[in-house]
Design a protein that fits this description.
The chain has 315 residues and is mainly α. Helices cover 67% and strands 0% of the residues. It has one domain. It is built from 15 helices and no strands.
């Protein structure tokens, strides 16, 4: 992982986006370009930003916290920003027609949807999740419902397995809430059938990080699931710790240590894709999908954090 390039890219993005844009958004945008192996394209990014501003209504989430993440997504596509934005809105409309209310999370999901019909299956899974956690299951779960709905398996069984994982992890000291629900969802990536070994790996990875004095907060719970499903080995975990500590010392991540950890994991996953070291992920689930899940986790976490801080500042 090239620490200097990451810090340089975050600085370039921050300069282009301006002081009024939350630094966490700049980090997410920089990561998106770097994970795709691309240098930050300031001109292209701002052209995509203009396309969004020109096309979207004033109430659109794409004009709020999600604006520059969407602009980066559009810039990285082969098609023109206008065409890419049209596709995002078409997918968003499909999600809306399936019964999901328009929100920043449906737009995150719209960037993930690949084929017609995914919205309907995602809605069925989302409804089954509500059977187990009526009040906990919300809009924030939509991106995961889309990713998991794409997989083979019965949605009723998958939702029941999520609930079983949730209960098991509570017994291992994990705090209840949205973050734990996201983790339990990701744990079903390889199979909708309950597997006690997946629970064991999640707990072992958490304990490994904590023994290395790396604090695991709720926002990092989904990442534990991603690493467990990918069966990241000890060498990969040690590399994540080392890179996290290096990033924490930089100007860009000094005040956002959670994002230092997330960034280190993203690059570890990218290396796994490159070297194909992970063979345990089933044919129906790819490492690229797990990286999508992690990006969704990052965007969802940042969105929730910014909304929370904005509410606190307004109170």
């Amino acid at each position: 992982m090239d620490i200097e390039k990451i810090e340089r890219t975050v600085a370039e993005v921050s300069k282009t986006l301006g002081w009024s844009v939350d630094k966490r958004i700049a980090v997410a945008v920089a990561n998106l370009y770097l994970i795709h192996g691309k240098d930050f394209d300031s001109k292209g990014h701002m052209e995509s930003s203009k396309a969004i501003k020109k096309t979207e209504g004033w109430t659109s989430p794409l004009k709020s916290y999600m604006h520059h993440i969407a602009a980066a997504f559009l810039t990285l596509q082969e098609e023109a920003p206008e065409e890419g934005l049209k596709k995002i809105n078409e997918r968003q409309d499909e999600l809306n027609a399936a019964g999901f209310r328009r929100s920043p999370y449906t737009y995150i999901a719209a960037m993930i949807v690949q084929h017609p019909g995914e919205a309907e299956k995602a809605k069925r899974l989302h409804e089954e999740m509500k059977q187990h956690h009526k009040f906990l299951t919300s809009q924030e779960d939509i991106p995961y419902a889309v990713l998991l709905g794409r997989l083979e398996g019965d949605v009723k069984e998958r939702a029941a397995t999520m609930n079983a994982y949730y209960k098991d992890l509570r017994e291992h000291g994990f705090y209840m809430g949205n973050d734990l629900q996201w983790l339990s969802q990701i744990m079903t990536f390889n199979s909708p059938i309950y597997r006690p070994d997946v629970v064991g790996r999640v707990v072992a990875i958490r304990d490994f990080f904590q023994n290395e004095k790396l604090k695991i907060r709720g926002a990092q719970y989904p990442i534990l699931g991603i690493l467990a499903v990918a069966e990241a080995n000890g060498q990969a975990l040690k590399g994540i710790i080392e890179n996290t500590r290096q990033l924490e010392k930089t100007k860009s991540f000094k005040w956002y240590k959670d994002l230092a950890f997330t960034t280190a994991v993203q690059f570890a996953m990218k290396d796994m894709v490159k070297t194909q070291e992970v063979s345990a992920v089933s044919v129906s689930t790819s490492l690229e999908m797990l990286m999508q899940a992690q990006q969704a986790a990052m965007y969802s976490s940042i969105n929730a954090a910014i909304i929370a801080s904005s509410s606190n500042n307004g109170s």
